[in-house]
Design a protein that fits this description.
seven-stranded mixed β-sheet, 161 residues, alpha/beta, 3 helices
C-alpha cells in the first residue's frame, strides 16, 4: 500500500471550500475515489461543487440526499456523487458503487460512506471537514502518495494558493 500523506487546509468561508474543490477538480484524471466527512451542513456538497466545476463541468451540483446519486459530465470524465445519509442498508446501490469505483473514466465522491465501508478500497482520498469557527472549517486531507497530483496548488494550513 502507498504511503499516506496528510494535508490540513484552513477554509474561512464556503467560497474557500469551493476554491479548494476547484483546485482538486482541475487535476482529476479519472479513477479517483473521495470520501467526504463532516457533520450535517459541514460543506461536503460545497466542496463537491468546486470539484465538479474545477473539472470543467457546467452541471448544476446539488446534494443527492434524496436521489442517492447524481452524475456530472466534465470535459474528459464523469463524476458520480453518492450520498448514503438516508440509507440503513445500501442494497443494490452497493453494486452500483462497486461499478463506479472500478471505472477509470470516472471520479467518485461519497458522502456518509460508513454504510459501504466494505466496498471502498483502502487507498482512497478522505477529506474531513471540521468546524473551527462559525463559518470556518479545517479540511484534513488524507491520501495515498500516488494521488499527490490532485493537490498541486493546495498548501498546508492555508487557503488554496
Amino acid at each position: 500500500m502507498d504511503k499516506i500523506e496528510v494535508k490540513s487546509v484552513i477554509l474561512n468561508s464556503p467560497n474557500d471550500t469551493e476554491l479548494l474543490g476547484a483546485s482538486i477538480g482541475r487535476n482529476l484524471k479519472g479513477g479517483e475515489l473521495f470520501e467526504l466527512t463532516s457533520d450535517l451542513g459541514g460543506g461536503k456538497t460545497t466542496l463537491t461543487r468546486g470539484i465538479v466545476q474545477g473539472a470543467g463541468s457546467h452541471d448544476h451540483v446539488s446534494s443527492p440526499s434524496f436521489t442517492i446519486r447524481n452524475d456530472y459530465q466534465a470535459k474528459d470524465l464523469s463524476i458520480a456523487h453518492f450520498d448514503f445519509y438516508r440509507l440503513s442498508e445500501p442494497g443494490i446501490l452497493r453494486d452500483m458503487l462497486g461499478e463506479a469505483i472500478t471505472n477509470q473514466d470516472m471520479a467518485v465522491i461519497i458522502e456518509w460512506a460508513q454504510i459501504v465501508d466494505d466496498v471502498l478500497p483502502t487507498d482512497h482520498i478522505k477529506i474531513e471537514l471540521m468546524p473551527v469557527s462559525d463559518k470556518g472549517r479545517k479540511a484534513k486531507i488524507s491520501y495515498p502518495h500516488r494521488f499527490e497530483y490532485l493537490f498541486k496548488g493546495v498548501n498546508d494550513a492555508n487557503a488554496v494558493a
